[in-house]
Amino acid sequence: MEKHHKFSIWYVLLGFWVVLIVQTYLASLLAIQTIPYSQFLSLLKEGKITEVAISENIITGKMLSEGPGNREKSFRTVRVDHELSELLKEHNVTFTGEVESTFMRDLLSWLLPLLIFVGVWYYLVQRIQGGRPGFMTFGKTKARIYMENELNVTFDDVAGVDEAKEELQEIIEFLKTPNKFTALGGKIPKGILLVGPPGTGKTLLAKAVAGESGVPFFSISGSEFVEMFVGVGAARVRDLFEQAKQKAPCIIFIDELDALGKARGVGVTGGHDEREQTLNQLLVEMDGFDPKVGIIILAATNRPEILDPALLRPGRFDRHILVDRPDKKGREDILRVHLKNVKIDDTVDIETLADMTPGMVGADLANLVNEAALLAARRNKQAVSMAEFEEAVERILAGLEKKNRLINPREREIVAYHEMGHALVALALPGTDPVHKISIIPRGVAALGYTIQLPTEDRYLMTKTELLNKIASLLGGRAAEEIIFGDISTGAHNDLARATDIARSMVKEYGMSSSLGQIYLSREKTNIFLDIGFPQPTGEYSEATAQAIDDEVKKIITEQYERALNLLREQEPILREGARLLLEKEKLEREEIVALIEKSRKEKEGEASA
Question: For residue 220, with 0-12 CB atoms within 10 Å meaning exposed, 13-18 middle and 19 or more buried, which class applies?
Fold first, then answer.
């Protein structure tokens, strides 16, 4: 690799001293004889001074030299006070003048301010750059380069994404034995795009590919290409590929590709901005390099729908690998990987933990294990037990527990009946997620209580009956308030929002409305992995259809609310007893609620038999 020399202030200082030495040497060649002032007076009286130039302190001129020829030679002398010189002359004293040397003082008078200025300038530049490379290195890539012996990540460290690992095995084989593919005329994909929700392990997979294949690994984020200076991003792309060719075979990994590869021409400003110029350079480089060189480009994004189509065509990122949320078995494997370095006791059941964490990705599970370990350390335990893991799940799902939040007895009672209403309706209806725990201890920002329902298995489809049962269980809290207090509170805000979303999706997206029929009335969402994104456009239907949708949604909500009211009126004694226990204990497990229901059922059977 070509070496780049950096400018240094020492070069300036060295040049200055060279000039000074040369000047001193030239002055010595043109030597001027320095004579005492008394000698000058004697020579003057003898008529041997032919020419003088008088300044304030110095007299220079020419005098006749002794010897044959009477040649002139230059001289200099320092002026002395005239009266003093006459007095010294009377006493036959040889006298001369001396000028105080001001060389160092003159040197420092201009050199010292220069050094101070250079020092202040250098300090300010370092502060502005914040430790980043200097101005002359803006065009250099910021990629972090990991050599073969620096990556200790293998496929053993990656779990829960078996399908993605199988797809990437082919890349490892190509990097290890390229002749196996080229001998048959095959070409390895130039670019591989890892697509999936945040936290599913896309970056970890890329590092594992490099670790397994034993090749250098260039890691850079898409946002690190783009700077405020035009042309810098394109220069960094060129430099990145240039360095990669020198270290081939290797892997280039671009994280958060959407920051760089957003579709052109759809921005607010439009035009040919710096980001588009950087993207154009990336497209050119991906077309330009020979796949036989052994450069594999991996990229990761959770927003593939906004990428430029030119990036996704064959010949560029022509293979897309989905890194999805893990299923139950995948969560078990991920938990085993993270529990390797954590001391756990015999109470920890990994299968139960996987059941308690539906929808969680690898990053969530790593955070869960860490939270449980911190809780155990806070309690001075020697190992992490299942109790810490259960509490960690609650902290992640519902937020931090706030035991010190003061709630007046009336509100506390309302919350207890509200949560008990959720639990009883959910237990009474088939197809709902089993109730795991209910609590009236405040958590998070606004949760005064919560009911945790955990599915027994991963579900990918839901029937109309199951969706209606879910709406009814969400409305059970408000129904309980109306039955017990004859009034309703604002505590059902989140329940109403979720129930309305489900009902509207049933009508507009799932075709589960008897009046509207099997019609899809909602546009596709623009963001398939995140809950946030671009504003959703309204459906293309008439005002009459919109009114029919609203009426159908209202009908579904009203019917399920009446259903929850009827279920709770039938179980009012259990509702009151459960709320009393909840106010007393603050938490109730599933077994306690089921025991309460069984006790009430046996009492009714006893009364009926009597």
Answer: buried
Antiparallel, parallel or unpaired: β 72-78 and 33-34: parallel
CB-based contact 527:301 (threshold 8 Å): no
What residue numbers bound the domain in which 290 lies?
Answer: 144-322
pLDDT of residue 532: 42
Look at residue 340 and tell me if it is in a domain: yes
Q: What is the DSSP letter of 35?
A: -
- What are all long-range contacts of 542-546, with beta carbons under 8 Å and residues at least 24 apart? 545/516, 545/521
Strands 191-195 and 295-301, by their bridges, are parallel
CATH number of the domain residue 392 falls in: 1.10.8.60
Q: Could you tell me if 59 and 71 are in contact, meaning their C-beta atoms sit under 8 angstroms apart?
A: no
> Residue 583's CB: how many other CB atoms inside 10 A?
16
Residue range 82-92: average pLDDT?
58
Catalytic (active site) residue 98: no
* H-type alpha helices, 156-250: 162-176, 179-182, 202-213, 232-246
Task: Tell me the C-alpha distance between 214 and 61, whole Å.
Answer: 82
Residue 292 lies inside a defined structural domain of this protein: yes
Residue pair 342/369 in contact (Cβ under 8 Å)? The answer is yes
Alpha helical stretches, state H, 347-492: 350-356, 362-378, 386-398, 409-428, 464-474, 476-485
Q: Mapping DSSP to helix (H, G, I), strand (E, B) and coil, where does residue 429 land?
A: coil
pLDDT at residue 586 in the model: 85
DSSP for 174-190 reads HHH-THHHHTTT----S
Quote the DSSP letter at residue 327: -
**Together in a domain, 385 and 425:** no
Residue at which a domain ends, from 306, 322, 338: 322
Collect all residues with Cβ–Cβ distance below 8 Å to 356 and sequence separation of at least 6. Answer: 389, 390, 393, 436, 454
Cβ neighbours around 364 below 10 Å, total: 17
Give the SS3 label for residue 112. Answer: helix
Q: Give how far Cα 450 sits from Cα of 359, 378, 393, 563, 594, Å.
A: 19, 25, 13, 22, 18
The answer to whether the beta carbons of residues 96 and 36 sit under 8 Å apart is yes
Mean pLDDT of 118-147: 61
Which entry of 224, 332, 419, 552 is annotated as an active-site residue? Answer: 419
**DSSP string for 257-289:** GGGT-BPTT-SSS-SS-HHHHHHHHHHHHHHHS
The residue type at 343:
K
Which CA distances in Å does 323 have to 194, 195, 257, 333, 423? 7, 6, 15, 15, 35
- Backbone φ and ψ for 567, nearest 5 degrees, come out as -60, -40
Global pTM?
A: 0.67
Whether a cis peptide bond, with omega within 30° of 0, leads into 304 is no
User: For residue 84, what are its two tokens?
Assistant: 């003093």
Number of domains in the chain: 3
Residues 364 and 511 in one domain: no
Confirm whether 535 is domain-assigned. yes
Give residue 2's pLDDT band: very low, low, confident or very high (50, 70, 90): very low
Do 485 and 392 share a structural domain?
A: no
At residue 533, the pLDDT reads: 43
Within this chain, do residues 305 and 422 fall inside the same structural domain, yes or no? Answer: no
